[in-house]
Amino acid sequence: MARNLDLTALRSFVAVSDAGGVTRAAGFLNLTQSAVSMQIKRLEEALDLQLLDRAGRGVGLTAAGEQMLGYARRLLALNDEAIARLTHQAYEGEVVLGVPSDIVYPAIPTVLQRFAREYPRMRVTLVSSYTRRLKGLFARGDADIILTTEDFCGPEGETLAEAPLVWIGAPGGVAWKQRPLPLAFEHNCIFRAGVQEALDKAGIPWVMAVESDSTRSIEASVSADLAVHALVAGAEPRYVERIPHGGALPDLCSTKINLYVAEPSHGPAVDALAAMVREAILPPR
Questions:
Q1: Are strands 122-129 and 93-100 parallel, antiparallel or unpaired?
Q2: 93-285: what fold?
């Protein structure tokens, strides 16, 4: 007899994988942690496979889980496409969401998936850029919602979280031991001046070894151990790591993650997307 996969359980499985844990996935799905855990357990029992590796501090995927993830995404995408095409939705139009490139992950992809399910006939344009440009777009009315990383919050915004900056480098890299310290930053990175100031105060000589307008170029240079970089804790790409400098590099300041929503709001869909972003970024309670 053919067996059927539970799409609800698959959706929970994908959310846990994308969010990196059950707690944050539960928030994305508007479910309790126990409900998400039960769905994952039911999926594992149906397949007679262990999909999640729960041995470490976080939640990872087993080899079977990695393979299942690809199938799960395809099944859910086909399900969501069928529903979107065959059912009428009240909302049509476009929402422009601006997010600094260094905090797109891990929250924003899950937010976009959730919004697409609930508003399948709404188009979301994601603008990934630096904070100064995003605030300019917002001021001109060219963005409905923006997230920013900055030292303060304007009167029209709200601070969702505050996170420290951390030093990152290549896994097992040695660039952080070099003097002068080789840095890699985008030209318009809002953290650049603060990092240089911290190094100057600590008496550590530095050189801007890599400059670019592309986040990908910076990440590639850092992962190749050509230089070091600093970004928001929790937003590190998988192919770099926090530098275990043991105090050899100065502590860095924290940054506020702020949310700005156009006023007056451009419709219920904008308000809904803002609520989803807010829920995804706010720290778990």
A1: parallel
A2: D-Maltodextrin-Binding Protein; domain 2 (3.40.190)
